[in-house]
């Protein structure tokens, strides 16, 4: 992804969700990614 694409995504997210809601969404996304990586690294039972 280029820098322009990232900036465009952030601007669209700000327009859709507003500045107050965005930190909550990013926190939730970060936790989801962390859980996914954790589950991926665990051996299957």
Automatic annotation (TrEMBL):
GO terms for molecular function: protein transmembrane transporter activity. It comes from the Bacteria. Keywords: Cell membrane, Membrane, Protein transport, Translocation, Transmembrane, Transmembrane helix, Transport. It is found in: Cell membrane. Part of the twin-arginine translocation (Tat) system that transports large folded proteins containing a characteristic twin-arginine motif in their signal peptide across membranes. TatA could form the protein-conducting channel of the Tat system. PANTHER family: SEC-INDEPENDENT PROTEIN TRANSLOCASE PROTEIN TATA. Forms a complex with TatC. This is Sec-independent protein translocase protein TatA. It comes from Pedobacter rhizosphaerae. The gene is tatA.
